[in-house]
């Protein structure tokens, strides 16, 4: 099993953190992992994306041109990455701020209103974990115990008191994800 993922949005949405936690979760599950971030110099508000590969086999290259899954959090990323999802793959997106919704019929499409759900939790910083929960509901590649261990590894110790909040946000995402197009 190999899963090639792109997570893309604005800096400040937790794109890189989501990728890092997913990667650490894979490591905790003894998978081969690649985590390759890309972002502009402006960080917060600029575009950011991260390619994550989780595999049971050695990874030959972290450079990808197509993806099994695209997790899209803004319109610029939708414009750039919708066409790069492999046929039969998954495009998961937050419709907040999306003007042109995906049109492809050869991929699975799902939505998660992460921004809305984060505001209902009264914590905008849970946005990325809500989105990650939606993804893990659709593709349970890593066990929740390993996600917990990934959170412990990626968050500084002074923020470990936030792990239960992050795990609650993951559960919200798992409950609220909506399939739009299923092959």
- The CATH class designation is Alpha Beta
CATH topology group = Pyruvate-ferredoxin Oxidoreductase, domain 3
Mean pLDDT: 92
**Count of DSSP strands:** 7
Give the oligomeric state: single chain
Helix/strand/pairing class, anyone?
A: alpha/beta
**Largest sheet: spatial strand order:** 2-3-1-4-5-6-7
Order of helices and strands: EHEEEHEEHHHHE
Low-confidence segments: none
Number of helices: 6
CATH architectural group: 3-Layer(aba) Sandwich
**Rg over CA atoms:** 15 Å
The biggest beta sheet, please? 7 strands, mixed
Tell me the fraction of residues in β-strands, as a range: 25-35%
End-to-end Cα distance = 20 Å
Specify the CATH homologous superfamily: Pyruvate-ferredoxin oxidoreductase, PFOR, domain III
Number of domains: 1
Share in helix: 25-40%
What general outline do the C-alpha atoms trace? globular
Pick out its properties.
single chain; 27% strand; 183 residues; globular; 6 helices; seven-stranded mixed sheet; Pyruvate-ferredoxin Oxidoreductase, domain 3; alpha/beta
Question: What does this protein structure show overall?
Answer:
The structure is a single chain. This protein is α/β, with parallel strands linked by helices and 183 residues long. It has a single domain, classed as Pyruvate-ferredoxin Oxidoreductase, domain 3 (3-Layer(aba) Sandwich). Helices cover 36% and strands 27% of the residues. The protein is built from six helices and seven strands; from the N terminus they run βαβββαββααααβ. It has a seven-stranded mixed sheet, sandwiched between helices. The longest helix has 14 residues. It starts with a strand and ends with a strand. The model has no long low-confidence stretch (mean pLDDT 92).
């Amino acid at each position: 099993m190999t899963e090639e993922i792109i997570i893309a949005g604005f800096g400040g949405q937790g794109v890189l953190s989501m990728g890092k936690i997913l990667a650490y979760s894979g490591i905790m599950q003894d998978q081969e992992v690649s985590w390759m971030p890309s972002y502009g110099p402006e960080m917060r508000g600029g575009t950011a994306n991260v390619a994550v590969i989780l595999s049971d086999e050695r990874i030959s290259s972290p450079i990808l041109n197509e993806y099994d899954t695209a997790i899209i959090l803004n319109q610029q990323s939708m414009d750039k990455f919708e066409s790069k999802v492999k046929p039969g793959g998954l495009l998961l997106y937050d419709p907040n701020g999306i003007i042109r919704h995906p049109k492809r019929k050869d991929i699975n499409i799902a939505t998660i209103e992460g921004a809305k759900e984060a505001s209902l939790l009264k914590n905008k910083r849970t946005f990325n974990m809500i989105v990650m929960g939606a993804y893990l509901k659709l593709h349970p590649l890593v066990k929740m115990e390993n996600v917990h261990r990934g959170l412990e590894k990626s968050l500084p110790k002074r923020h470990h008191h936030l792990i239960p909040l992050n795990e609650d946000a993951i559960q919200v995402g798992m409950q609220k994800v909506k399939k739009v197009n299923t092959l």
